[in-house]
Amino acid sequence: MTYPSLNVEFHSMMMMRPITLQNVAVIGAGAAGLVAARELQREGHKVVVFEREDRIGGTWVYNSTTESDPIGIDPFRTVIQSSLYASLRTNLSRDCMGFRDYPFVASKEANRDPRRFPGHREVLEYLNDFASEFGLSELVRFGTEVRNVCLEGGKWKVRSRKGGDQLDEIYDAVVVCNGHFTEPRIAEIPGIETWPGRQIHSHNYRDPEPFQGQVVILIGSAASAVDISRDIAGVAKQVHIASRSVTDGTIGKLPGYNNMWLHSMIESVDRNGTVVFQDRSAVRADVILHCTGYMYHFPFLDTNGIVTVDDNSVRPLYKHIFPPPLAPQLSFVGLPWKSKWIAGVLSGRIALPSSGEMMADVEAFYRTLDVSGIPKRYTHNLAASQFEYYDWLAAECGYPAAEKWRNQMYSAATKNRMARPETYRDEWDDQHLVSQANEDFIKYSSSNTVQKEMDSSSLNNQSSSSTPTTQEL
Ligand SMILES: Cc1cc2nc3c(=O)[nH]c(=O)nc-3n(C[C@H](O)[C@H](O)[C@H](O)COP(=O)(O)OP(=O)(O)OC[C@H]3O[C@@H](n4cnc5c(N)ncnc54)[C@H](O)[C@@H]3O)c2cc1C
């Protein structure tokens, strides 16, 4: 895909700066690693992607097996990468989720899921399509786990293991894409050591069956908590949701359910099985289910203490990507634009500020967080500023800002999810934005297949009402 109006500018940028092609190791072949591999490859770098599983897709490869430690604190447990539950449908619409120049359009192929908020298998199919379109699987060493990454003579020594074989290799640069939804974060609960019930983290939740007839306390209020509480309410005796963000007015029985209640956070638990909430209500429960998120975890990375993770803040990172003292030879990826920027910076086509300037920028950013009273653990939570951040990255790469519908669609979806937690995936009011997205997708589509799918998708949309249902799509 090309942006014709920018090619001249790009070409002159490339003529002005000498290009250096590098040997780059990418760790992980999930969505982030695949995008990184594609961008690095198209910049001309030599890329090896290390993937410990035997297929691409990372978290989107559903695994019915769960970890031996249901709350994931045993460091010696066998790690399962995916946190998906069987019923999971995306919480972002496919139009918003897709990569900008490889839209996630509905496919007419058999066994595909054309819904706007599809089930998890459809996301994996999309990533498979993306990988085959750009020949990315050939870059991946499957079944190969990175065990250690450390500096040696100004380069990176990457130690990997495949089966019983260990290999040490030297790379110019390392891009870390190992995912950040695998290492559970657990709520601290006074008295939990002697509480007799069962605990589990949502990372190890797959289906509601084990909660049949149980009294379940579910901690959290983000997307997984909303889904899983509804999943479980169908079979459990009672579901009590403990939420940090609850307001007094919303505490109590949840409308539409005869067995689900909303509470403030847990204050303590007792050896007799009782769970006491801060609102002074108390329940005798069988299970505590932590839907409390994840921690950044880079067990293989040795940077001599330069990069640290403190209260889930990875520091210091310039623009959430490069640690200044190690830039650009070490980077962390989670978003497409990051990869394009990294690829251009590594080749020398795009310049970074000096290490000192980057450090000053990072420190100023951390001061802003402190002054605003934002805890460290929200350092990488871009929330409202995420589109501004994407536009900044795009501009650095010489590309235009994102289309307006993306931001508007994201806001509309967020509001819709709050207003209709049960039905937001099948009822919406922003069909006009879907039409705008489809017009843009046609511009980005390079293959006839995608073009054809776009045509039929927009025909379907034209015939649907302003609040289409899944069936209509
Ligand atoms: C329950 C849930 C629901 C979600 N829903 C949505 C949604 O609706 N929309 C959305 O946009 N996003 C959603 N997300 C976010 C999702 O995680 C991202 O969309 C994206 O898939 C993350 O990709 P990643 O490549 O960063 O990580 P992952 O997909 O986790 O991939 C990391 C890869 O690195 C490999 N790896 C790790 N360590 C090593 C090592 N040492 N050596 C070799 N390989 C290694 C892993 O095997 C894995 O393949 C959801 C996440 C979760 C957990």
Automatic annotation (TrEMBL):
Its EC number is 1.-.-.-. Its cofactor is FAD. Belongs to the FMO family. Signal peptide: none annotated. It comes from Camellia sinensis var. sinensis (China tea). Residues 456-466 have a biased composition (Low complexity). It is an enzyme of class 1 (oxidoreductase). It holds the Pfam family FMO-like. This is Flavin-containing monooxygenase. Residues 445-473 are annotated as: Disordered. SUPFAM superfamilies: FAD/NAD(P)-binding domain. Keywords: FAD, Flavoprotein, Monooxygenase, NADP, Oxidoreductase. It comes from the Eukaryota. One of its GO terms (molecular function) is N,N-dimethylaniline monooxygenase activity.
